[in-house]
Amino acid sequence: MATVTLENLRKSYGPTEVIHGVDIDIADGEFIVIVGPSGCGKSTLLRMVAGLERVSAGEVRIDGTRVNDVEPMDRNIAMVFQNYALYPHMSVFENMAYGLKIAGTPKPEIAERVSDAARLLQLEDYLGRRPRELSGGQRQRVAMGRAIVRKPAVFLFDEPLSNLDAKLRVQMRLEIKQLQRRLGVTALYVTHDQVEAMTLADRMVVMNAGVADQIGAPLEVYARPQTAFVAGFIGSPPTNFVAAQLLRPGAPDGARLGVRPEHVRVVSPGEGALQARVMYAEPLGAETLVHLKLADDALFTLRQDGTAPVPEEGAEIGLAWDDDAQMLFGPDDRRLQG
Amino acid sequence: MEKRVTFQGVLLPLLLVLPQIVVTAVFFFYPAGQAIWQSLFIPDPFGLSMRFVGLGNFEFLLSDPYYRASFVTTAIFSSLVTVVSMGVALYLAVLADRLIKGSGTYRTLLIWPYAVAPAVAGVLWLFMFNTRVGVVTWYLGLLGYDWNHVLNEGEAMGLVVVASAWGRISYNFLFFLAGLQAIPKSVIEAAAIDGARFWTRFRTIVFPLLSPTTFFLLVVNVVYAFFETFGVIHTITSGGPQQATTILVYKVFADGFVGQDLGSSAAQSVILLVVVSVLTVIQFKYIERRVHY
Amino acid sequence: MTTPADPLAAEVPPKKPKAQPDGMVEKRGAGLWLTHLGLILGVLFIFFPIWLAFVASTVTQPEIVRPPMPLWPGDRFFENYGKALTSGINAPVALMLFNSAVMALGIALGKIVISLLSAFAIVYFRFPGRRVFFWLIFLTLMLPVEVRIVPTYEVAASFGMLNSYSGLIFPLIASATATFLFRQFFLTVPDELAEAARIDGARPMRFFWDILLPMSRTNIAALFVILFIYGWNQYLWPLLITTDPSMNTIVMGIKQMFPSGDDVADWPVIMATSILAMVPPIIVVISMQRLFIRGLVESEK
After folding, report:
1. Residue A299 forms beta bridges with which residues?
2. Domain A238-337's class?
3. C51 pLDDT tier (thresholds 50, 70, 90)
4. Which of A263, A268, A255, A260 is nearest to A318 (CA)?
């Protein structure tokens, strides 16, 4: 168990900098999820913590010790890969035992630790099989088992669920969370899926173009996005943006107002903050998504309870929301007002 | 294409490539360099000194009627070997591909001449067409045809071509069959539904789709005919009669080891080197293209 | 299988009525038999020279010298093969077989070992001179020993390698085809495997030995077959480098059994030797057929 600190961490490939100085403090036993679109640098960040990518500038500290130049195997970490990276020619047992074998762990202890992990992951019946004889979910478990048996201080996950089908993904998500709680181990988890991030994280890091835009508890990030990017990325359907000057004459040029679809109410035409025409509605049962067009042809989405009346297509309606639901972002996309 | 992951270290990788470096340097680059160097010299008759002649050896070679004849012989020989072996192989592969069952059996039956050395193939065919004891010669005699490849240049060429092509059929067959089996059945079925008969299907669909394989085999077979058929020629005709079957490689050997004309032999090696390099470049262009598929 | 009831067929209006039901892809009835007939002719064409050689190796010299020779095996199988193996003409064929085996195994194993090591280095390391090395390797592709035969002979002679196994083996190892193939294969091994191994604590050679090598098993086996046959079938090089009959390999030794001048060749023994020269590579090809085809078609393409 350990703390992990990233301090002004940077990564460049040649002259191109892809990570522009990231600071994160991870407490012992904390579950941190790094979320962002593909290409934002989240995997690179994780791989620097693992020691698979060299750190260009800044520091990675595990339990207070600088590990920039420490080999992966000596960092007391374990990693679960997106494609699992199981050794195809080894049995499940051998896959899990390989790291311990290299470390020179006595055979009886290897057997004990592997069988403990196998029990935890319900893999006991599969220890003799090769990876190709397993289902996707089982392979995923083996990859986790390989990480567990080493009893690392830090777990690193690189999009571990993205190769699974939707149903299995939900199930494995729960298992990972339970496992991490049970083992009390520090975890750093990378994903592009905001639902995974919201459900797993103690705190999440939203990354955008090599910068950590915001770090905080999931609901905190959802409720108080610090940048327009975070407001747009976290939450589904995404936040609506309108030019701020439309509603607040005197707002700076390029400033935008954001309102989440779930905070918008339908009011009679002519009332409310904005006027819109209904393009079409998607009743999903529990909720209904209504897609609208504003006067300037901009698109706008609102989300209402499934029991509310569904507005007719082509109807003109007014849109209203509470003042504290609207978020003002400056021309640099930073949040201007709380 | 590069690996994302690399291991650290300099000494270890250098140690790992060392054996290959040493063997290649000593037995490849040094001799190849020597061939180029020697091609610029003429040794005196006693082999005691070398006289620098620049490109003299090449000029002499290119004006030498025997060498030019050998070029023509090589061209004829390799075209015939390539066409015959690929033609027969394609024919057999198309037949085997039409079978739902049993194509594996035929493959097993047809595959193993690949293992027969060209020199052994030469001996087998020499035996059949031997002027004194050959079975085929004898039966041809019954038909009133007097076979004598020892004297007749055309017959000599025919025999080395057939013997060389014979050993190559299995190789080409394997590739053609693999290529044919890789063509999606649905494409052929679609053509059949469109009313295309077998021959039309073959001409308009199968053969064009097979062209990468065909092109690959073309290059490989030409290289084979250039070099690996040495054993066939040496066992059957020894380049004769009147040098009618002296292909370029055979001439390098004959001039260098039998005739001891090192300068000329080296110059011939260099010319061959250029020919192979061109073929290699063609082949690589082709491989490059494949990568982009 | 496409049948007339195929829904797709129903959608496409037939351009013209099909004359026979086998307008489809596979042949039935007479067509099927014609296909088999064609293939059998091909098989016979392939087999016939070998059959004749086998027959000749089981009859007496007079039966051959007085044409036409029989087309069915005689009763001299053991005499002829026994004579060939134990005394031969210049050297016992058993000895030549042994020499061939040493050469073929030496070339196959030697090339596989040095190629595995160097391919591992150029794929998994970044070291100074790597680019240069890489291109040097590619220069050697496809340039057969025949092209640089005279200088190579001189090198071998200056090392005292004439009439030696090392002289038979090393010059033929000096090309990088196998390195190229292993490099191609290593590049297809997912990066994450090496990363996982690093996190598991495997040093480079440990990764090579525990992970990469076992994963390359099929490639190694396929390449072994190809290289074994390549080595076994060498002709020109052994012809130059072995002047001592006791160092002859069987493939080049056959030609040496023909008498110079007008003497009549000892055909039964020569043909028995030819058969013996074919048997080991044929056994290798047939027994490892699947691996071999995969290796050949995948590697050379």
Report:
1. A293
2. mainly beta
3. very high
4. A268
Number of domains in chain B: 1
ipTM of the complex: 0.86
- For chain A, the chains sharing at least 3 beta-carbon pairs closer than 8 angstroms are C
CATH number, domain of B238, equals 1.10.3720.10
What's the first-to-final CA gap in chain A, in angstroms? 36
CA distances from C224 to A16, A60, B172, B221 (A): 45, 47, 20, 22
Residue-number span of the structural domain to which B56 is assigned:
52-291
DSSP string covering B205-266: IIHHHHHHHHHHHHHHHHHIIIIITHHHHHHHTTT-STTTT--HHHHHHIIIIIS--HHHHH
Please indicate, yes or no, if residue B40 is contained in any of the structural domains: no
Question: Is B47 within the bounds of a domain?
Answer: no
Taking CA–CA distances from A148, the nearest residue in chain C reads: C200
A161 touches chain C (CB under 8 A): no
Query: What CATH architecture is A4-232?
Result: 3-Layer(aba) Sandwich (3.40)
In this complex, is the C-beta atom of C194 within 8 Å of any C-beta atom belonging to chain B? yes
The residues, ordered by sequence, that sit 6+ positions from B9 with a Cβ below 8 Å of its Cβ are C125, C127, C204
CB–CB of A30/A218 below 8 Å? no
Residue to substitute from B1, B10, B17, interface C, most C β-carbons within 10 A = B17
**Which tokens sit at B258?**
């039998």
Q: What is the pLDDT of residues B226-260, one digit of tens each?
A: 888 999 999 998 887 888 899 988 998 888 887 77
Nearest chain A residue to C200, by CA: A99
Note whether C221 contacts A: Cβ–Cβ < 8 A: no
Residues A233-253 have pLDDT tens digits of: 998 889 999 888 777 777 788
**Per the CB < 8 Å rule, is C236 touching B106?**
no
Output DSSP code: residue A226: S
Asked whether the beta carbons of residue C199 and residue A99 sit closer than 8 angstroms, the reply is yes
Q: Is B25 inside any structural domain?
A: no
Nearest to B171 by CA among A255, A304, C300: C300
Cα(B130)–Cα(C264) distance, integer angstroms:
12
CATH 3.40.50.300 range(s) for chain A read: 4-232
Architecture of the domain whose range is C93-300: Orthogonal Bundle (1.10)
What does the angle CA A154 – CA A157 – CA A163 come to, to the nearest 5 degrees? 160
Q: Cβ distance B269 to C147 under 8 Å?
A: yes
